[in-house]
Amino acid sequence: MRYVYMALIAFFAAIIILFKFQNLEAVTISLFSASVTLPVSVLVLLIYVLGMLTGGLLLTLLRTWVLGATRRY
Asked: Fewer CB atoms inside 10 Å of the end CB: C or N, the chain?
């Protein structure tokens, strides 16, 4: 079973490396007067991490609101 896990890790790493090399084009992002130029793969990774953070925070906030609304004082 250890070899299966090692093979899955190697496969996942190969997919990530392939994605990185296939998305090396630069993209410029502008907001107001600021602009940043990043490779597409870095931008996708940043958007993914930002989505995980905001999704987790939103879920925690909603749980807190529901718990506060159902709690009897």
From this structure: C
Per-residue pLDDT, averaged over 51-56, amounts to 89
Q: What is the DSSP letter of 1?
A: -
18 neighbors 41 (Cβ within 8 angstroms): no
* Nearest to 16, CA basis, from 53, 38, 41, 39: 41
Contacts of 34 (CB under 8 A, 6+ apart): none
The number of beta carbons lying within 10 Å of the beta carbon of residue 23 is: 15
What pTM did the predictor assign? 0.60
